[in-house]
Design brief:
53% of the residues lie in helices and 10% in strands. The protein is mainly alpha-helical. Among the domains are: 53 residues, no CATH class; 124 residues, no CATH class; 103 residues, no CATH class. Helix 10 packs parallel to helix 13 and helix 14 runs parallel beside helix 15. The longest helix is centred in the middle third of the chain and has 48 residues. About 19% of the residues have low confidence.
Length: 716
């Protein structure tokens, strides 16, 4: 193993050990609220439905409950929430307090754990109404005075730490053996000095440019600061634009020989995504951040889950976590979150979502370092985007040609935005990119046969991609289209492909059965019923097919797909007019130009037909799933489907349907090289050449134009 790989192996071991500790050790305090000591209930405040003058507790549906208070002349009373039923988490309780027959205070309480919420009530209260859709038996008490609480340290999960260390050792061995490769040994001086001078000079040039442009940008914005001080978010945007321009220039001048297409992608992606990460407000900028943050929080613990009140505010979509239309209000919202982040108030059990593990690792590391909610949030988003960047980097690196098309797709502005938010879409995209790239590389190497292990890894990548969204399972069938002469043992190859696929299909059946028997998505109201909707589809199949075909005509249209390119979630849609269409046309141009001679063996007519059917068929499955779980029963339309759901299908469509090689040629009859007259002829695709700099520049410019429209003009 060379010196560089030994260093990387050591760093990986260190990171895995730190992660194991982060998931097992929870620094901080867990606070449990209790009723004030020595308080006795006053019968005058007992709940009596026959006494119209007494405060009453109204529940929907009605359940047994008790409302008690001490007859005291203190200035305030507190509602102490003793939460009993952990299955009712996530529902809301509405508290209405009518005092002196005139004013009414309305408060929404979100139960989130035993002995959690404490709400001050007005002193003169004539009527107290509580409404909620779950059992509150013996869970509400009204006391005067401050409730007591007990602070305790959270013990380390020692068994969990041992398990994590064992898993880390396995991961370390696999990465060291199969990714870093090679045998251990001392590096020779020639290995350590290989291709160093030119590469190091290029990096030093870019480093100097980065420092100089950063200082100039900071100085200009510091002189232009407003009454609220230095605008750090605007600095991130301007500085990133300069870094991207400088990186493109230096890559075209020097770095293209060493970084190749995958290096160009990773550099641009990190610049663009980190800018967006630092410039966006903390909270609900993306899609369903509350749900994905809840999954990430649960994954960041081994065993019992703990959460601060600030965590609960994000998970329950509190208004303070939503994006505001100016920088100062967003900063104040982040400050408010920080005020509720001092102790852990919630304690519960939860399941595991493997697709949220990268974000969970960021949250766990943030906890270990003692960071507040803002920086924990950013670390969770940061590791999410890092996974997407690394997977796509290796997918591009895997290909012999066709790299440019994947780079263009991965750098769509909306895709970069998704990577900077809590989500599982980028998990699906990253692993599907890598799985399809491995399949294409295997077919590009016409003389090399595919081993059992290589086939299993390709199929496993696609199966892992589909874990959070099993609806994309048709992608896992693509490896079965490997030509017979490419495999030594056809039966073993098919077995390697089917094993991951079978596990995925079992989980799909379990999840699908549960969804049909469930209540559906509550965001569209009580009219959603998956069981009744399925019965409606089966009894009105012709009617539904008309609805589906009409919807697919819109879903698969050019106009609808523009949302997948320029939609920034709660930041809005970047309407750049013809620029968006030009970006998609440029991607199609790359499909025709980025095809080397080795690409002619990538596909055949069977695979092309299946790829098109996979694109249309999976789109139909996505639409049908939303018709069942999101659309009211019998509605003449399909609700909830977004253009981003097409993204895992775009890469195989563009990579596998058109495979005709396209090469350029350069002929020079006589040239003077090193004092000698020579003749030469060169041919090849535009992949890994300076030509891709044009595509990268036209990809980067719309990104910064779009983010300027949805970010700078709105909230910075």
């Amino acid at each position: 193993m060379r010196y560089r790989e030994r260093v990387l192996s050591g760093l990986l071991a260190l990171v895995l050990c730190v992660l194991s500790l982060a998931f097992s050790y929870i620094p901080g305090t867990y606070r449990q609220y209790t009723a004030p000591d020595g308080k006795t209930a006053d019968a005058a405040w007992q709940l009596h439905t026959e006494n119209e003058t007494a405060p009453e507790l109204m529940l929907e549906p009605a359940v047994d409950a008790a409302l008690t208070a001490e007859n005291s002349e203190t200035t305030g009373r507190y509602l102490v929430w003793h939460f009993v039923d952990t299955k009712a988490r996530g529902y809301e309780l509405t508290l209405r307090v009518l005092h002196e027959g005139v004013d009414e205070d309305v408060t929404t309480i979100v139960p989130s754990g035993s002995d959690l919420a404490v709400t001050l009530l007005p002193e003169q209260a004539e009527k107290i109404t509580l409404t909620g859709g779950y059992g509150l038996a013996d869970s509400v008490e009204l006391f005067s005075g401050e409730p007591a609480y007990v602070d305790s340290k959270i013990p380390m999960n020692v068994p969990g730490l041992v398990v994590m260390l064992i898993l880390s050792a396995i991961v370390w061995y696999v990465v060291r053996r199969w990714v870093l490769g090679g045998k251990s040994g001392k590096a020779t001086s020639s290995e350590m000095e290989a291709d160093a001078p030119e590469k190091e000079m290029s990096f030093f040039i870019y480093f100097d440019f980065a420092v100089a442009s950063g200082l100039i940008t900071a100085g200009i914005l510091f002189l232009m600061r407003d009454a609220y001080g230095f605008n750090r978010q605007l600095f991130a945007y301007v500085y990133a634009a300069l870094l991207a321009a400088g990186f493109l220039g230096i890559w075209g001048w020097k770095l293209h020989k060493s970084l190749k297409t995958e290096g160009l992608f990773l550099g641009l992606f990190l610049i663009e995504s980190i800018m967006l990460l630092l410039a966006m407000p903390i909270g609900h900028s993306g899609f369903d951040v509350d749900t994905h943050y809840r999954f990430a929080i649960a994954d960041s613990y081994l065993g019992e889950v703990y959460a601060t009140q600030a965590d609960e505010m994000v998970m329950n979509a509190d208004l303070v976590t939503y994006m505001k239309d100016n920088r100062i209000t967003n900063l104040l919202s982040t400050y408010q979150l920080g005020l509720h982040d001092d102790v852990y108030l919630d304690h519960y059990s939860a399941g595991i979502s493997i697709a949220h593990f990268p974000a969970a690792a960021g949250l766990a590391l943030g906890r270990l370092l003692g960071l507040n909610i803002k920086w924990r949030f950013l670390m969770g988003e940061g590791l999410t985007l890092l996974l997407y960047g690394v997977l796509t980097y290796f997918a591009i690196k895997t290909l012999k040609s066709g790299k440019l098309v994947l780079m263009m797709i991965a750098l769509f502005p909306a895709n970069v935005f998704m990577a900077t938010n809590f989500n599982y879409d980028t998990w699906v995209w990253g692993f599907s990119f890598l799985g399809i790239a491995r399949f294409i590389r295997a077919r590009q190497e016409a003389e090399k046969q595919v081993s059992f292990g290589a086939a299993f890894m390709t199929s496993a990548c696609l199966a892992i991609a589909c874990i959070p969204k099993q609806i994309y399972f048709p992608l896992t069938l693509i490896p079965l289209f490997m030509p017979k002469d490419k495999v030594k043992d056809r039966k073993k190859y098919v077995l390697a492909c089917i094993l991951p696929m079978a596990l995925l299909l079992v989980s799909l059946l379990i999840r699908g059965t549960g969804a049909v028997g469930g209540t559906g998505d509550s965001r569209t109201g009580d009219l959603v019923n998956p069981g009744m909707q399925l019965q409606y589809v089966l009894t009105h199949l012709g009617t539904y097919l008309v609805v589906l075909i009409r919807f697919l005509g819109s879903f698969l249209s050019w106009d609808f797909f523009k949302d997948a390119v320029m939609y920034f979630g709660n930041l809005g849609f970047a309407d750049l007019g013809p620029v968006c269409g030009a970006l998609m046309v440029l991607t199609l141009v790359a499909v025709f130009l980025d095809r080397g001679d080795e690409y002619k063996t990538v596909s055949d007519w069977k695979l092309r037909v299946y790829t098109v059917l996979c694109y249309v068929g999976t789109a139909a499955l996505v639409a049908t799933s939303f018709y069942l779980i999101f659309t009211p029963v019998g509605l003449d339309g399909i609700m909830g489907v977004q253009a981003r759901y097409l993204m895992p299908l775009v890469w195989p469509l563009l990579a596998l349907v058109y495979t005709r090689p396209c090469t350029y040629s350069v002929s020079v009859d006589r040239a003077n090289i090193a004092g000698r007259d020579v003749s030469f002829h060169k041919s090849g695709s535009i992949g890994d050449s300076r030509w891709i700099l044009i595509f990268a520049a036209f990809q980067t410019a719309p990104y910064f134009a779009a983010t300027y429209q949805v970010l700078v003009t709105r909230i910075l």
